[in-house]
Design a protein that fits this description.
Ferritin, disordered N terminus
Length: about 190
């Protein structure tokens, strides 16, 4: 009897070790080498967590670039577009921060490296050159954002994250249409 009890305890312990080893790496992954958050929330599918991290970094970038454009742009149309970016993306960032908190997903604390490089480049420009480069960047960024949010809205696994993507997508589509319109007016693209 003692021997069979000991075999049972050892067998249960052996089964527990692989389960623990499998969970730890998923929970530990908190930041990437760039310092940007990339943690999957507990219970939130990795693709949905990754979407939130990407959307969070991109949203912060839109606000920062919008502020820069509101200061540096020479065209009133570009300045108005930039202010729309600050207002709309600040609102969306707040909503995403709340959602990520509910899902235990850590968002980046600053824009992702490609956005930093874009800001550095735009900071060297002024006048019409700034306006054209900024609007070209906004068209490209919003094309990518619409694709990212469309994918999450159609294939997301977490219902709350999917719902937020569905709700936010029309605003991004409006931004893309307006970015193309303003870019056309100022001769960008």
């Amino acid at each position: 009897m003692l021997k069979s009890s000991l075999v049972f305890v050892v067998s249960v312990a052996a089964l527990a070790v692989p389960a623990t080893a499998d969970v730890a790496p998923k929970a530990k992954k908190a930041t990437s080498s760039s310092g940007a958050a990339s943690a999957a929330g507990y219970g939130t599918p990795a693709a949905d967590s990754g979407f939130m991290v990407k959307a969070g970094g991109d949203g912060m970038a839109e606000v920062e670039l919008g502020r820069l454009a509101a200061e540096r742009a020479s065209s009133s149309d570009v300045k108005a577009f930039a202010q729309m970016m600050v207002d709309d993306h600040s609102k969306a960032n707040g909503e995403l921060t709340s959602l990520a908190g509910q899902k235990s997903v850590t968002l980046p604390t600053e824009p992702l490296p490609p956005a930093k490089a874009a800001k550095d480049h735009l900071s060297t420009l002024s006048g019409a050159a700034f306006d054209k480069a900024y609007m070209d960047h906004m068209v490209k960024d919003h094309e990518k954002a619409v694709a990212l949010f469309t994918k999450e809205a159609s294939a997301g696994k977490d219902p709350d994250t999917k719902s937020w993507a569905e709700k936010t997508l029309p605003t991004l589509q409006q931004h893309l249409a307006k970015a193309r319109e303003v870019a056309g007016k100022i001769g960008a693209r």
